[in-house]
Amino acid sequence: MEEIAQSTKTIFILAGQSNMSGRGGVIKDPHNNQKLWDRVVPLECQPHPSILRLSAKLEWEPSIEQIHADIDTKKVCGVGPGMSFANAVKDRINGAVGLVPCAVGGTAIKEWARGEELYENMVKRAKESVKDGGEIKGLLWFQGESDTSTQIEANAYRGNMEKLIENVREDLGLPSLPIIQVAIASGLDDNYMEKVREAQLNINLPNVACVDAKGLDLNEDHLHLTTESQVKLGNMLADAYLKHFAASP
């Protein structure tokens, strides 16, 4: 484990709500109606010696699904986009891919404001991730479904997201930190969902990209991406990173 900790790492923060932490493959147990993960891990999400995750205990370890299980602890986690993203970029970067899971299901963007627990924990984990070497190369952000319940929340989304980007760059001392956000594919109210999507797709700040999850298949709850969709999303995030932010080979 010491060898893992000291290796060169290209680090990515994974933040947002449940579609980032992952609900792919989460199903209802027919015996007791409780939710459980079906434990199906697609080829694109398989572990690899060069893919690591920072645990809740702030220790580097091999990354396997469910990578948010000790972070998003109040719900059952399944497959998210993190592992397919890491597998898609690992051959184009130096050293190991270090994933820093921070997403928590059901959270609104106001809960990610500076001074709030989720934001401060994300910053703490990000700072801890580079203590023994490595470099933070991006924040992958998938959130907004919880901001689609009222017009006030939806109208405020763009300003709140721009402030989040400003704050996290300032607090990490990375003024050009790449941000790749996901435009949401589901929400609580269709009208307000479109307002949040509009905000996400039209943020015009340096080193901010957006991939659109609309059209990806959802679970039967009509809120969460399926395992297959999470694999596709991870590849979309990887394509965006490699196109916009990765250094040329």
Automatic annotation (TrEMBL):
Gene3D superfamilies: SGNH hydrolase. InterPro entries: Carb_Esterase_6 (IPR052940), SASA (IPR005181), SGNH_hydro_sf (IPR036514). The keyword Hydrolase applies. Residues 9-243 form the Sialate O-acetylesterase domain. Keywords: Hydrolase. The keyword Transmembrane does not apply. GO terms for molecular function: hydrolase activity. Transmembrane segments: none annotated. This is ESTERASE putative (DUF303)-RELATED. It comes from Salix viminalis (Common osier). The lineage of its organism: Eukaryota, Viridiplantae, Streptophyta, Embryophyta, Tracheophyta.
